[in-house]
Design goal:
α2 packs antiparallel against α12, α6 crosses α13 and α13 packs antiparallel against α14. This protein starts with a helix and ends with a helix. Helices cover 53% and strands 15% of the residues. By secondary structure, it is of the alpha/beta class. Strands 2-1-3-10-4-11 form a 6-stranded mixed sheet, with helices on both faces. Among the domains are: 138 residues, D-Maltodextrin-Binding Protein, domain 2 (3-Layer(aba) Sandwich); 105 residues, D-Maltodextrin-Binding Protein, domain 2 (3-Layer(aba) Sandwich), CATH 3.40.190.10. α2 links the parallel β1 and β2. The chain is built from 14 helices and 11 strands.
């Protein structure tokens, strides 16, 4: 009996030792190994090889038109990098935004609003922006109405917005929504999404067509896309008139994935800033591509600090909305204003770090 009890006790001791090994020693060993691997750069897993570039573009009119405009640049980029460049052209800002969130985009030409969001999410990094020149009229947001319609003055728009049908851009569009809201409508106590009789949300081409064809009374747009619209739809463009122009808004930048190796980011940047600068037939062909993309003077190098004007614009818009909205009490309004200030401070800190 005593012998049996002793055997059982030894078996129990062995079992307890095994349990301790499984639940204490092994995890600690694994954790130590993981920490050692992380601390040893020689043993870190190398980044996956880059075999192609997925390039996302904002909708310019429609997806077919966007593809036709961007394909020559994509082809030249692929030749220069020695790898295929596929285009991700979508009809809406929302779809492009979702694709970036799913890491389906490696490089993109974005509105300043979308670029700021992508940079703050640590997904993307600014590498270039369109070069500006004194010979080229500055890009501005505009408000369009029909020449022969019942509404043909800015005063008419602002005095009775409830009477009119609005066609506007996506809320991520700088000239289609953010700038008109901040510089024109909110200063006149008009919230674009709620004060008009109805609203239609679409591309700049779609909003211009809506007013030209009588499906809307007023539309947001911009000088660059309006010029393209005049070339493609001269009859419809002849029915439109501009009743308001904004101050120049923040420009749209080129962004690339932040986790790309720095040397590859530099190759992409060098391609963009050198594009259209050459001589001879190839240089002429590249300059024609840039002209069609409304970037006649090419691209200049930039970093995340190029988005500081957009951060200021969103800060201004956030404060305007907080002041114009109805709140249960002033404490609630103040809370909202504090969140606006906190967000802006975080954006400024992140964007300025790129320039240091």
């Amino acid at each position: 009996m005593t012998t049996t009890f002793a055997r059982l006790r030894r078996a129990a001791a062995v079992l307890l030792a095994f349990v301790f090994f499984v639940f204490a020693v092994l995890p600690a060993t694994a954790q130590h190994a993981t920490a050692a691997a992380a601390a040893s750069p020689d043993k870190a897993a190398p980044p996956p090889a880059i075999r192609m570039i997925r390039f996302g573009v904002l909708p310019l009119g429609g997806t077919v038109e966007s593809r036709a405009l961007w394909t020559p640049l994509m082809t030249d980029m692929g030749r220069a990098l020695g790898m295929p460049v596929s285009m991700y052209s979508v009809p809406t800002y929302e779809e492009l935004d979702r694709a970036i969130g799913r890491d389906e985009i490696d490089m993109a030409f974005l509105s300043a609003k979308m670029a700021l969001d992508a940079v703050m999410q640590r997904r993307m990094k600014v590498v270039a922006q369109i070069a500006r020149h004194s010979n080229v009229p500055e890009h501005r947001a505009v408000l369009l109405v029909r020449k022969a319609g019942p509404l043909n003055t800015l005063e008419g728009v602002l005095s009775q917005p409830e009477k009119w049908r609005l066609a506007r851009g996506d809320s991520r569009s700088v000239t289609g929504f953010i700038v008109p809201q901040s510089q024109l409508f909110l200063p006149n106590n008009i919230e674009m999404e709620t004060r008009f009789r109805s609203e239609f949300v679409g591309t700049h081409q779609a909003t211009a067509l809506a007013v030209a064809n009588g499906d809307a009374d007023v539309a947001t747009n911009n000088t660059t896309d309006l010029e393209r619209f005049r070339q493609q739809f001269p009859v419809e463009a002849g029915r439109l008139q501009v009743v308001w122009e904004s101050e120049p808004p923040p420009g749209a930048p080129m962004v690339v994935r932040r986790d790309f190796p720095p040397e590859f980011q530099a190759r992409l940047q060098n391609f963009l800033t050198g594009y259209g600068k050459g001589k001879g037939a190839r240089g002429d062909a590249e300059r024609e591509v840039l002209k069609n993309l409304r970037a006649a003077y090419g691209y200049v190098a930039a970093d995340d600090s190029a988005l500081l004007p957009q951060a200021r614009l969103e800060h201004q818009l956030g404060r305007q909305r907080a002041m114009a909205a109805s709140w249960v009490n002033e404490a609630a309004r103040e809370q909202r204003l504090q969140r606006v200030e906190k967000t802006y401070a975080e954006q400024v800190e992140t964007l300025r770090a790129a320039a240091r």
